[in-house]
């Protein structure tokens, strides 16, 4: 939803009447699905909050357009060329009383608010026209078939994008006066003496043209939908009689054991709670109540595996995990690699996503007095990507 002050007084015209012959496929590209929504629906969705949205569609697509978009936008039948389609859409805005229009390709579904706002800012500052573009950064060659035949100077060259913004009356008059056609409305405006301000474009604002563009757009939507969650966990177990302690899934020889309802693996418990925390799913006690006798003496990998599988079912994978054990003894260093490997195996991730380290508390507090072992853990979970 645009909150730009000019949006409520500006029309949007989306040209979507092409056939997408270069893209191919069963449907014209604007009607194809991109991460669960049609390309055109995404392009329209980028302009919520504008005064009016006109969508120009091919006559053959009008039935589908009415079914999917009717009521949300004004639908207009397109023409054989992009310029003709834009002109048809502009005519419906004549007399609307709106001051500006943004003309956008239905085949650019990933335009983001900063690009739209930059165009509106330039118009609000008094520019009669403004459009996003990216400076050409690669060297430019001429070629024939597979041979280089010459070179072009890239200085001052830009790759044009949309939305292209105009004073409505001026661009409508330019279209009415000119039936020669143009690659875009900036070309037509320039031909009619309308100065055009260049504002920054965005590499993600690609125009879907060739089949490979769809896969690139899918990657961009996945990146945008990425959901990173962070959780932490903390646990303590007291020493008691025994000859080993279970830490991060490894039995470490010691002259004491750890006391607990399960195997008292303090490190694994902290990590399990970190994952539940990232998922906002409570803690171990909620999933494995200590009052339930079936968990008495249980190996803690049951808990960690459950948390990792729950994350998977909720659409997340582990980004990384970091466990710190706090004790004077036993020494953790010699066992840290085995702990790392075991935790990774239980969670089904590569060992380099898991860290196990230890510190003493300088003989301070309960861990310093060797009354027990504490552990803290952090986990990141990545979803939507
Ligand atoms: N007669 C036309 C031709 C194109 N467009 C629209 O203009 C935008 C940019 O055009 P382009 O990428 O060339 O789309 P197509 O014409 O569909 O592609 P192709 O040339 O591969 O057939 C697209 O949103 C397209 O739907 C239009 O409204 N009317
Ligand atoms: C308007 C445009 O998107 C600017 O880059 C482009 O010119 C339209 O696409 P086409 O492939 O040139 O028809």
Automatic annotation (TrEMBL):
Domain annotation 2-C-methyl-D-erythritol 2,4-cyclodiphosphate synthase: ranges: 229-381
A Pfam family per the record: YgbB
UniProt keyword annotation of Cell cycle present: no
Region 2-C-methyl-D-erythritol 4-phosphate cytidylyltransferase, residue ranges: 1-228
Transmembrane segments: none
GO molecular function: 2-C-methyl-D-erythritol 2,4-cyclodiphosphate synthase activity; 2-C-methyl-D-erythritol 4-phosphate cytidylyltransferase activity; metal ion binding
Site label Transition state stabilizer, positions: 22, 29, 261, 360
Region named 2-C-methyl-D-erythritol 2,4-cyclodiphosphate synthase: 229-385
InterPro entries according to UniProt: IspD, IspD/F, IspD/TarI, ISPD_synthase_CS, MECDP_synthase, MECDP_synthase_CS, MECDP_synthase_sf, Nucleotide-diphossugar_trans
Keywords: Isoprene biosynthesis, Lyase, Metal-binding, Multifunctional enzyme, Nucleotidyltransferase, Transferase
Record has GTP-binding as a keyword: no
Binding residues for 4-CDP-2-C-methyl-D-erythritol 2-phosphate: 235-237, 261-262, 283-285, 359-362, 366, 369
Binding site for a divalent metal cation: 235, 237, 269
CC cofactor: a divalent metal cation
SUPFAM superfamilies: IpsF-like, Nucleotide-diphospho-sugar transferases
EC number in record: 2.7.7.60, 4.6.1.12
Highest taxon above the source species: Bacteria
Cited function: Bifunctional enzyme that catalyzes the formation of 4-diphosphocytidyl-2-C-methyl-D-erythritol from CTP and 2-C-methyl-D-erythritol 4-phosphate (MEP) (IspD), and catalyzes the conversion of 4-diphosphocytidyl-2-C-methyl-D-erythritol 2-phosphate (CDP-ME2P) to 2-C-methyl-D-erythritol 2,4-cyclodiphosphate (ME-CPP) with a corresponding release of cytidine 5-monophosphate (CMP) (IspF).
Family indicated by similarity: In the C-terminal section; belongs to the IspF family. In the N-terminal section; belongs to the IspD/TarI cytidylyltransferase family. IspD subfamily.
Protein name, entry field: Bifunctional enzyme IspD/IspF
Organism: Paracoccus sphaerophysae
């Amino acid at each position: 939803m645009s909150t730009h002050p000019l949006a409520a007084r500006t029309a949007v015209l989306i040209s979507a009447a092409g056939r997408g012959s270069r893209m191919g496929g069963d449907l014209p590209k604007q009607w194809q699905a991109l991460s669960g929504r049609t390309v055109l629906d995404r392009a329209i969705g980028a302009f919520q909050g504008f005064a009016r949205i006109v969508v120009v569609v091919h006559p053959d697509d009008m039935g589908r357009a009415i079914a999917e978009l009717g009521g949300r936008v004004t639908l207009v039948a397109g023409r054989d060329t992009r310029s003709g389609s834009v002109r048809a859409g502009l005519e419906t805005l004549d007399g609307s009383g709106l001051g500006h229009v943004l003309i956008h390709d239905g085949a650019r579904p990933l335009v983001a608010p900063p690009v739209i706002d930059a165009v509106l800012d330039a118009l609000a500052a008094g520019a009669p026209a403004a459009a996003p573009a990216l400076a050409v950064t690669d060297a430019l060659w001429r070629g024939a078939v597979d041979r280089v035949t010459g070179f072009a100077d890239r200085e001052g060259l830009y790759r044009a994008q949309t939305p292209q913004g105009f004073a409505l009356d001026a661009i409508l008059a330019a279209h009415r006066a000119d039936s020669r056609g143009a690659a875009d409305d900036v070309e037509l405006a320039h031909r009619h003496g309308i100065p055009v301000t260049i504002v920054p474009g965005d590499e993600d604002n690609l125009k879907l043209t060739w089949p490979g563009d769809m896969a690139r757009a899918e990657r961009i939507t996945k990146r945008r939908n990425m959901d990173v969650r962070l959780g932490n966990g903390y646990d303590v177990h007291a020493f008691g009689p025994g000859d080993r302690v279970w830490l991060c899934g490894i039995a470490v020889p010691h002259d004491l054991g750890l006391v607990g309802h399960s195997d008292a693996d303090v490190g694994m418990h902290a990590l399990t709670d970190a994952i539940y925390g990232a998922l906002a799913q409570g803690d171990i006690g909620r999933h494995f109540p200590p009052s339930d006798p079936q968990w008495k003496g249980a190996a803690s990998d049951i808990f960690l595996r459950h948390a990792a599988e729950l994350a998977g079912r909720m659409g997340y994978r582990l980004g990384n995990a970091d466990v710190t054990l706090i004790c004077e003894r036993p020494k953790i260093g010699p066992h840290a690699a085995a702990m790392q490997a075991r935790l990774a195996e239980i969670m089904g991730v590569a060992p380099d996503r898991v860290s196990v380290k230890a510190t003493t508390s300088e003989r301070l507090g309960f861990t310093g007095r060797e009354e027990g072992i504490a552990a803290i853990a952090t986990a990141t979970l990545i979803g939507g990507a």
